[in-house]
Fold Bacteriohemerythrin.
Amino acid sequence: MWQWEAKYSVGIEVIDHQHKQLIEYINELSIAGAYKSFENRQRVQDVLAKLVDYTISHFSFEEELMEEAGYDMLEPHIKVHEAFIDRVAFFKQRFEDGEDITKQLISDLQMWLINHIQRDDADYKHIVQKALLKKNIAPNEKAKKDKWLSSLVKKFFG
């Protein structure tokens, strides 16, 4: 099982939580793909669907934070997200065509997520953290910041 490590943290609690959820989906995929059976194939399909949906929501949320913060490399970051979504869609199509893609997908997901967190996400973390702090100008403004962040989380994750 893949464990969260402090070195994966971007220092933004809500983003770290979402990354931890992605790791959980990867672990679920690993368990579901461990044994060849119809039931496990169905579990792989279910986890793959959840992973795709959650990843798209996570990326949208991340992009919204970057846009709000005025991150100047937003467009290239979006392109990285789009390329990843295309890659996962490719795996999903191969799975639907009957291929056993689980091991390769897990390996790709792990490598991509670690690389993305430690490189791409690390690039925006300071500007987003700064923007989040600005939303918390004074202690009595904390509720405003929390409300804004909560509404953004609800918008993308229900």
About this structure: The chain is about 80% helix and 0% strand. Helices lie at 13-32, 38-69, 74-96, 102-134, 142-157.
